[in-house]
Amino acid sequence: MHWRAKVAGFKLLSALPGGSALYRFCQDRLTKSLVPSPERVAQKLAVGLQYFDWLTQHRRHDQLLMGVHLDLGAGWHPTIPLLFYSLGANRQFLFDVVPLLDARLVAQTLETFLRLVQDPGWPHRGRLRRLPPPLENSDWRHYFQKLGIACHAPYAATFPSLAARVDVVTCTQVLLHLPREVMAWCFGQTFLSLKPGGLFMATIHLKDLFANSQPRLSKYNHLRYSAETWQRWINSPLMSYNRFKAPDYRELLETAGFEIVHFEVEEGTAGDLQELDTIPIAPCFERYSRAELAARHLFFVARKA
Predict the structure, then answer these.
(1) 170 - beta bridge partners?
(2) What is the CATH number of domain 35-206+244-303?
(3) So what's the pLDDT on residue 188?
């Protein structure tokens, strides 16, 4: 589907009464974008291992395994919390804006997760201390409670109760959807939730959100549009994309009080820079360097002193 048609659909659904429920129905029944396929679960496993490997390399993995983990923006298939449970984590919180999880998605995710991690060819089998048991009935919240996992959606009212209780916060491909004011609030609440020495870890795509699903659409297409045009004609409550670059995340983290201990930007290739040069850049992006605009991905670790 052409990206402009997608944008129009999101705009329409956002304006309709019950549009969010209809969008969820379409995701579930038509586009199947909520299905925890082996490819999607494997991708989340890779990110979860990236977090854990960083912690292990810096001798901080006990903060996760012996402490409290918060997954901010947990989404609809809780692969990373299941992985961390399997690695030995005993206390986790899953936060999201809306309640996406249900018994069917949890059961599908668990089935796919177990199939992948028990495959003899999966190279990390020896690292797992245990496996989550089967989901015996549809009471998935009780099931998660037995694993030490508590789910909260929406989560705004729960954040204050976690003040100075959390050791590690992870956030996977969520921050690119948040407007600046909301992100500043989230970073502030995340900072308050962490114990001194606690860590905030996140991965973020920096390329065009629509390029993955439309062949030949430039990964830098989003740079064409002014802030006013983007907000008025493209962004919507159902599909918000902030177009932030790596310096924006660094600035917001530092404003919230974090010390940045790891800030890994995947730079654009020579081919990416050539592609970037074919895009007329809107004035609102002129403050970024060519390298910052071409960057593909960001992984950061921030610390509360």
Answers:
(1) 71, 201
(2) 3.40.50.150
(3) 98
Name the residue type at position 234: I
Amino acid at 295: A
User: Where along the chain do its domains lie?
Assistant: 35-206+244-303
Distances in Å between the Cα of 297 and the Cα atoms of 12, 68, 204, 219, 273 are: 30, 27, 6, 12, 15
Q: For the CA atoms of the chain, what is the radius of gyration?
A: 20
How far apart, in whole angstroms, are the C-alpha atoms of residue 304 and residue 192? 9
Residue appearing with tokens 């028990």 = 118
3-state secondary structure of 84: helix
Q: Residue 17: enclosing H or E segment and its boundaries?
A: none
pLDDT tens, position by position, 53-79: 999 999 999 999 999 999 999 888 899
Pair type for strands 92-95 and 69-72: parallel
Q: How far apart are CA 298 and CA 108, in angstroms?
A: 29
194 φ/ψ sector (left φ>0, alpha ψ -120 to 50, else beta): beta
User: What contacts 103, CB < 8 A, 6 or more positions away?
Assistant: 135, 138, 139, 140
**Nearest by Cα to 294 from 262, 253, 266:** 266
Lay out the sheet containing 149-152: strands in order across. 149-152, 92-95, 69-72, 166-172, 194-205, 297-303, 259-266
CB distance 276 to 291 below 8 Å: no
Residue ranges in 155-289 assigned as alpha helix (H): 180-193, 227-229, 246-256, 270-276
Give the pair of three-digit tokens for residue 38: 């082996």
Please tell me the pTM assigned to this model. 0.93
Three-state DSSP class for 263? strand
Low-confidence ranges of the chain (pLDDT < 50): none
Which tokens belong to 30? Answer: 């038509």
Structure tokens at 264: 């890994």
Q: How far apart are CA 64 and CA 292, in angstroms?
A: 32
Report residue 88: phi and psi, to 5°: 125, 0
For residues 24 and 153, the answer to whether their CB atoms sit within 8 Å is no
